Amino acid sequence: MRHQLFIDGRWQDPVEPGRIPVFDPYRGTVYHEVSAGGPADVDKAVAAAKAAFPAWRDAGGRGRARYLAAIAARLTERAEELARLSSRNNGKPLGEARIDMADVAASFAYYAEQAIALQERQDADVALPDDGFHARLRQEPAGVASLIVPWNFPLVTTSWKVAPALAAGCTVVLKPSEITPVVELELGAIAEDVGLPAGVLNIITGTGERVGAPMTTHPDVAKISFTGSNAVGARVMAAGAPGVKSVSLELGGKSPIVVFANADFDEAVDCVLGGIFFNAGQMCSATSRLLVERSIAPKLIDAIIAGSRALNPGDPLDEGTTIGPITMKAQHDKVLSYIERGKAEGLTLLAGGGKPAAAGDGWFVEPTIFGDVPTTSALWREEIFGPVLCIRTFESEEEAIALANDCDFGLVATVVSGDDVQANRVANAIEAGHVWINSPQAIFVQTSWGGFKASGIGRELGPWGMSSYLEVKHVTSRLKR
Question: Residue 341 has what pLDDT?
Answer without folding.
Answer: 97
